[in-house]
Amino acid sequence: MTAIVGIQGKGWAVLGADTTTSYQDRPYVAKGCDKIVKVGEYLVAVAGDAIVGDILNNLWQPPKVIKTQDPDRFMMIRVLPSIKQTIIDGGYDPTPKTKNDDDSGWDALVCFNGKIFQVSDDYGYMRDDKGLYAIGSGGTLALGALAALESETKTHAKASGAAKKAINIAIEYNIWCGGTATIKTQFTK
Fold this sequence. Notes:
Helices cover about 30% and strands about 30% of the residues. The chain is of the alpha+beta class.
C-alpha cells in the first residue's frame, strides 16, 4: 500500500512518499517507479488502486496551467475533467465500494503552481487551511506525525525534513508501507 503526504506552504508545496508497492501479501520495490511523478507542470501522487497511478503517470496529458485563473476554478473546470477522461480512456473499471471493502478506489495529491489538491475517486477535491495532507494506508500515521511536527513545516527546507520524518514513521509502524522516503518540492511560478 502507500503513505503519501503533502505540506502546503506560501509559494511552495512539498510531497513525500514511501517506495514500496504491495499486491496481495507481497511487497514490490522498483527503481524508477516513483509514487510522486512529474507530469508536465504537475506533481501527481496516487494511493489505492495502482492502475490509476499508472494511467495518470503515463497517459495523462494535463491541461497547461493558467496562472491567472483561480486555482480552485481551474481545478474544477480543467484538471478534474481531464483526469476523469484519462482514467476512463485508460480502461479503469473500479470495483464497487462496500462497507467491508475500504481498500478499493483511489486518492491522489495533485499539485500545480505550488498548490496541493487532494482528489478522491469520486472526482471531488479538497484543500485544507492547515496545509497538511496524507493519503494511503499509512496516511493516518503520517498525518499524525506531520501534525506533531507542524512547527517544522514553515519553510520548504524544513517541510521536506518533516515530510521525510512522517513517511519514515509510517514505514516503521504500518506493515504495508516500506522502502525509503522520497520528497519532491514544487514552487509557485
